[in-house]
Specification:
The protein is α+β, with helices and mostly antiparallel strands. The chain is 49% helix and 25% strand. α2 (38-61) packs antiparallel against α3 (67-105).
Length: 178
C-alpha cells in the first residue's frame, strides 16, 4: 500500500480486502438509515409483548386456550429463524459475487481533494464531485462514502501512517461541506 497526504489532497494505493465488505455494506446501510435509539426499540418491543398478553387474555375470555397464542409465537419464532438462516446464506453468496469483482480490480488508486474523489483500478475509472457524496460514515475497519445506491469503501489499512480514520473522515467531510 502506498499513500500520500498533502495540504491539498490525500492519495491512496491499495488492494481491496474483501473481508471488509460486510462491515462496509453495514456502514452504507447505517449512513442511509440510522439505527433507532435504544428507548425507541425498547418501547416498540414492550408494546409488542403487551399486545401478545392482551391477545392471550382475550382468547382466554372466549374460552379458548392461551396455548394457541404460545403455539403461534413458537411458529413465528421458527419462521424468523428460517428467514435469518436464508438471509445469511444469501448474503454470503452476495459477498462472494461482489468479492469476485474486487479481486479483478487489482490495485486501486484513489485521490481525494477539494474537487471530489477520483478512483482508478484495472477495470474502471470513476470521478465523483463532493455533491455526489451523500455521506461519509465509519464502518468496522473502513470508511464508507455513500453516493446514491453505491458505496466507496476505503479500508483503514490503506491509510498512511499518521492519518487515523477519524481524522481522514473529518478531512473528507470538510471537503464535502465546502
Amino acid at each position: 500500500m502506498d499513500a500520500g497526504v498533502t495540504e491539498d489532497a490525500i492519495e491512496l494505493r491499495y488492494r481491496f480486502d474483501t473481508k471488509v465488505l460486510p462491515a462496509a455494506m453495514s456502514g452504507w446501510w447505517r449512513s442511509a438509515v440510522p439505527p433507532q435509539k435504544f428507548v425507541h426499540r425498547a418501547v416498540f418491543w414492550a408494546v409488542v409483548w403487551l399486545g401478545l398478553l392482551v391477545l392471550a387474555g382475550a382468547i382466554g375470555q372466549y374460552g379458548l386456550s392461551p396455548v394457541l397464542v404460545i403455539a403461534g409465537i413458537l411458529g413465528a419464532g421458527v419462521m424468523v429463524a428460517a428467514f435469518a438462516y436464508l438471509q445469511r446464506t444469501r448474503m454470503r453468496q452476495f459477498y462472494r459475487i461482489v468479492g469476485a469483482h474486487w479481486d479483478q480490480t487489482g490495485e486501486i488508486a484513489v485521490r481525494f481533494d477539494a474537487q471530489g474523489v477520483d478512483m482508478r483500478d484495472d477495470v474502471s475509472m470513476q470521478r465523483y464531485a463532493w455533491a455526489a457524496i451523500d455521506a461519509v460514515h465509519r464502518a468496522k475497519g473502513a470508511t464508507v462514502l455513500r453516493t446514491g445506491m453505491a458505496m466507496i469503501a476505503i479500508p483503514d489499512a490503506a491509510l498512511p501512517e499518521g492519518l487515523d480514520p477519524s481524522a481522514f473522515r473529518a478531512r473528507l467531510n470538510g471537503w464535502r461541506g465546502s
